[in-house]
Amino acid sequence: MNKMIGEQTIKFDSKPKIISSAAIVGPKEGEGPLGEYFDKVLPDSYYQEQTWEKAERKITQETIELLMQKANLSADKIDYLLGGDLLDQTITANFVARKFARPYFGLYGACSTMVEGMILGAMLIDGGYGQRTINFTSSHYQGSERQYRTPNEYGDKYPGYKQWTVTGSGATLLAKDGQGPVVTEATVGKVMDLGVKDPMDMGAAMAPAAADTILQHLNDTNRNPVQYDLIVTGDLGEVGSKLLRELLEDKNIDISEDQDDCGLLIYNSDQGVGAGGSGCGCSAVVTASYLLPYLNNNRFKRLLVVATGALMSPLTFLQGESIPSIAHGIVIENDTQNNAIGNQEFEQRQKANNSNGELNR
Amino acid sequence: MNKMIGEQTIKFDSKPKIISSAAIVGPKEGEGPLGEYFDKVLPDSYYQEQTWEKAERKITQETIELLMQKANLSADKIDYLLGGDLLDQTITANFVARKFARPYFGLYGACSTMVEGMILGAMLIDGGYGQRTINFTSSHYQGSERQYRTPNEYGDKYPGYKQWTVTGSGATLLAKDGQGPVVTEATVGKVMDLGVKDPMDMGAAMAPAAADTILQHLNDTNRNPVQYDLIVTGDLGEVGSKLLRELLEDKNIDISEDQDDCGLLIYNSDQGVGAGGSGCGCSAVVTASYLLPYLNNNRFKRLLVVATGALMSPLTFLQGESIPSIAHGIVIENDTQNNAIGNQEFEQRQKANNSNGELNR
């Protein structure tokens, strides 16, 4: 009953199905090239709440409600919730889990949380411990900046290589039975650290972890990058994506034709977002509202999502530490004629969307 | 291949083995009734480091090294690490995981982290996703007080119902094969909240979650409390333990003869620790160094450990929120003649120990 292939990759023979996905984003994300794809775009960052933290919670709660509604399931049909976020003590996830009152695993994987949750969800189902899991995550630009760097009101000038934390929440519903793209493999990441100390430069800190996980995954599966329609990293942004390609070139792996990054997909270059998007919400909303429907529409057959997380805190920065990072990879495939995740809706949105929203392949 | 019994309980047919456990504690914990049982007692809270956070990291790292050494295994034989702690962004666990460079799942379950990690570790092994997992957690009194309440140097007076955060790290090594107590069942908890708002009163906040998980577990397994040698809660302390018994009495369940609490076991009542111990380290070190050897020595046949976590943050308190809590339960049994975890050593320690260290049954 060994389900490992190679050294570090899991094979899910039962192919857990992603029967629903949902994402709600903030106004800036709504103005980006993927704006049409998200289930809901907020008019402002407070969303009628008094604090950003409460706004993030409300967005996340609504995302999960929408996720279940799309699958026509109520909370009592969900066996496990898996959630985490960037706020101290992952309060968004914990307070949202309270609302739904289902068995809950709290996670901390920084911006890798979406894929960490999907991997554990797929294991719970594939292993026979449940029928349905929901994994969710979120981030909020203003709340995150205040906690990690300085409140926006201080007006600090940031370097161009800094990334912009996505306001939004994404979630997926995995199930033993049903229709939708399937989870076939996962490569759980190791914590890496090449010594980057600048908390503005997260892409550079996370690139070595992404490179390690991709390399391990390709070795374990004995595949080439071209065997994926897309290898999509979580939120390396411009700086980190360039570094990732260089790190892999050193190992004679060329992913330049096959890789894209959620942090680059989510914003237009003229939106003033530095090196691109980041935050738990980044890979979550792009995967939930854009990549999964893409798979579902037979545009893709096989996708490798590699979500990256920078595992430092403001305190470790002040204590002179470098930034450890992690990257978890998950393979999602289009299996036969599954088309649960809003096929027609996706086509309509793509028509309404500007051409930037079309992946270039 | 359904491994669920009842509504919320998992049955591990393959019985993952706990082949090693280890714990290192601070000086106050060393002076308590279980002092002789821990693998190492620190002379002071800094442990030759410049900050409490770095001390916590060092303790945790050494605990894992000791854990592997006891099992005569090197890090490359470990398939997964599962870790978490109380510090913002779980920096202890993340930085420690960097050191060992193995596939890593970051968790946040507050003081329930030890059991959350053991449950997921048991699933990874039982499900066939790996052969060996290490789960670890830690807390540090001074670091924790500064982050959650006020720095000790301010000299705030605390109410008697406040609990004392344990300085220490505990870890267990689960394996498909080997000798030691076995994990047979788990009940994953739901987030509960009965409206307690006082961050000094964690025991009261966590008691409803513990009651819910214990009740669910007994229902699912169709057992009575007397069918366990001990039901041990994580860190409810005096206030929370009393409330737990009352909550269960309301449901006609009497656990008064069968329950104990790690927060009460770890300190003597004259140590000035308020209502007892708490923190991720509390249930971790008591389980690793005391309860597991107890099982291993045939003193116990079946143990239910219910680790409890308060899922708030200082920010949610300041924003007027109550304290959501969670409790995860795990059943550990003595299976045949397994005696991996220091049988003789345990007997010697018990001789050296004062009578307080003897569980009253």
Main attributes?
homodimer; Peroxisomal Thiolase, Chain A, domain 1; 35% helix; 6-stranded mixed β-sheet; 361 residues; 7-stranded mixed β-sheet; alpha/beta; 11 helices
Would you kindly provide a brief summary of this structure?
The first copy, chain A, is an alpha/beta fold and about 350 residues long. Chain A has eleven helices and 15 strands.
Please describe what this structure looks like.
The structure is a homodimer of 361-residue chains. With 361 residues, the first copy, chain A, is of the alpha/beta class. Chain A has 2 domains: 16-175, Peroxisomal Thiolase, Chain A, domain 1; 182-357, 3-Layer(aba) Sandwich (Peroxisomal Thiolase, Chain A, domain 1). Chain A is 35% helix and 21% strand. Chain A has 11 helices and 15 strands. A 7-stranded mixed β-sheet of chain A has the order 1-2-10-15-14-11-12, with helices on both faces. Chain A has a 6-stranded mixed β-sheet with strand order 4-3-9-7-5-6, sandwiched between helices. A two-stranded parallel ribbon of chain A has the order 8-13. In chain A, strand 5, helix 3 and strand 6 (104-106) form a beta-alpha-beta unit. In chain A, helix 2 (52-71) crosses helix 3 (91-100). The longest helix of chain A has 20 residues, at 52-71. The model of chain A has no long low-confidence stretch (mean pLDDT 92). At the A-B interface, helix 3, strand 6, helix 4 and helix 10 of A face helix 3, strand 6, helix 4 and helix 10 of B.
